Amino acid sequence: MNHRTVAACTAAAVAAAALTGCGSSGDDSAAGPAELTYWAWAPGMDKVVDLWNEENPDVQVTVKKQAGGDDLVTKTITAAKAGEAPDLVQAEYQALPTLVGNDVLADMSGEVAGAEEEFAPGVWQQVTLGGDAVYALPRTRDR
Questions:
Q1: pTM
Q2: Which of 7, 18, 46, 99 could pair covalently with 111 via S-S, beta carbons 3.0-4.6 A apart?
Q3: How many Å is the Cα radius of gyration of the chain?
Q4: Among residues of the chain, what percentage have pLDDT more than 90?
Q5: Which is nearest to 80 in space by CA: 104, 62, 99, 116?
């Protein structure tokens, strides 16, 4: 695990927290920290999240280990249709069009403004699907 993985996970968690906050109303300060669920398949993501949770007591993330590939895509779509999707999901680039097409991923371009500069143009294009909407953050930076 390296600092690039930590940065990507951190940015994704912040983006998800911001998206989660958009739908809330009233004063949530007395309710405690925001709690996010993160479905991931890569080894060591629990350690990355532990670092995040230590540094960010207001946004706590719980990792739920999942299978990757098509199994994760199917499970994520099914969970979303049932209203039980995770707040964050680690998905492979080739899964993004399917997840977007099934209305599972949110456009988080407003929450990650400026992040594009951290990635090679070809890598960034894979998470924007050729448009202005941003559906994911790459796992590693290229610059």
A1: 0.73
A2: 18
A3: 15
A4: 48
A5: 104
